[in-house]
Specification:
- This is MmgE/PrpD family protein.
- It comes from Microbacterium istanbulense.
- It holds the Pfam family MmgE_PrpD_C.
- InterPro entries: MmgE/PrpD_sf, MmgE/PrpD_sf_1, MmgE/PrpD_sf_2, MmgE_PrpD, MmgE_PrpD_C, MmgE_PrpD_N.
- Belongs to the PrpD family.
- The structure is a single chain.
- The chain has about 500 residues and is α+β, with helices and mostly antiparallel strands.
- It folds into two domains: about 280 residues, 2-methylcitrate dehydratase PrpD (Orthogonal Bundle); about 140 residues, 60s Ribosomal Protein L30, Chain: A (2-Layer Sandwich).
- Helices cover about 45% and strands about 10% of the residues.
- It has 21 helices and eight strands.
- The strands form three sheets. A four-stranded mixed beta sheet has the order 6-5-7-8. Strands 1-4 form a two-stranded antiparallel ribbon. The chain has a two-stranded antiparallel ribbon with strand order 2-3.
- A hairpin with a 3-residue loop joins strand 2 and strand 3.
- Helix 1 packs parallel to helix 7 and helix 3 packs antiparallel against helix 4.
- The longest helix has 21 residues.
- The protein is globular and about 70 Å long.
- It starts with a strand and ends in a 6-residue tail after the last helix.
Amino acid sequence: MTVSHHVRVYPSSEPLPREEQLAWKIAEVAADPVAVEPEVVEMIINRIIDNASVAAASLTRAPIVAARGQAFSHPVSRGGQGATVFGAPLDERTSPEWAAWANGVAVRELDYHDTFLAAEYSHPGDNIPAILAVAQHTGKDGQALVRGIATGYEIQVDLVKAISLHKHKIDHVAHLGPSAAAGIGTLLDLDVETIYQAVGQALHTTTATRQSRKGEISTWKAHAPAFAGKMAVEAVDRAMRGQTSPSPIYEGEDGVIAWMLDGKDASYDVPLPAAGEAKRGILDTYTKEHSAEYQAQAIIDLARRLGTENPALRDPENIVSIVLHTSHHTHNVIGSGANDPQKYDPTASRETLDHSVPYIFTVALQDGAWHHVDSYAPERAARPDTVALWHKVTTAEDAEWTRRYHSTDPAEKAFGGRVEITLADGTTVTDEIAVADAHPLGARPFAREDYIRKFRILAEPVLEPAEIERFLTLVQRLPELTAAEVEELSIIAAPGVLASTDAAARPGLF
């Protein structure tokens, strides 16, 4: 049974006992020793594979090179044996917070892993790098790792269901700091008091504005969740040493809700598992078949289908206008409603283009496919016929698609839209799609074989065949892994893959 916790702001004159605070309730869920259900274990394995897939594809990209360089500038801390970094040999370790940093950047760089969308937006797989790094550093086995990841997903999903951050231009990683801290607390079997303090500190240090995802989007977009994971590791360390956090962090008169979210009169109802209830939040989440913002997943599938069935739609000479009728979020964040001219700029950064649904629809329509590198290549974005067609694509908010986007009924919750294409001869073409093909309710729901195929496709250019098989064999035994085997839960780049990029990397302070 799920319990709904009513959360509001309390003036300092009305003390709120810690046992009634949201951070304490989160800590109680984290400390609950409930078993992880087999279906959840299987999905955790899928998502570790998914993270490794997108990390492999990112190993030589500049943000990952920089983050990896920073990580290896720091030695293993004295309290454990350190943690691995994607791409590096297994015996090359760094301190866990820096491993969480480097691996978190690698996982997020291509914006290509799992997602959960409700009142807020999230990539719950961002929890895994921090929890795994601490597991390796502290010598935890596969069962402990499973329990920690299940908590991280559960807490993030529950917060995302109830509390909107983006409405107040606060970046979504403000839900990630607390969830990762809670997951680490479960992993380490910490008591409620310690986890409570860590959750509060993690939230306090990970609130930032959404400018990182606005206009000309910078490389910080990939770093923001990694920073939240790193802060969660550090928060747990401080809490374990007896250090306390601002309290009540959510409900206080000068707390997050009062000044960063809906204000002093706000209230939320946050669903959390009851004592003894299994943590199933990960089962509400879904991954990406395509490397683009999640709201673009269904749009890519729609565009691929339209272009394949009617190739004439690919020629801008045949098109007067293309209007995507979609949800408020899609229109205002990755659509023309954002009023970002960069979303129509062929010289824009990859980070900007993967948040431009007009661009994404155009390329998927013309190519009948989507590729995590080729679809964003500067020469692809600058192709004259693409630019001409791209500038005819706009979005419009549709109340019904917005309602379905926010529906709590999984059967009608939708992230797609309806397209209306006006042709030069005066006729129109219309079509629509509710969810991506890979969504659990889509045309081709992702299963284990799809996660493995995605991993092979993305890993083959940078990992040797034997390494691909080693990782896949190991991760699929996750619940039975010994502590020594958890230390091997990483991917090793083929000889020479990292050498040139790492050697050419710009030096920093460390």
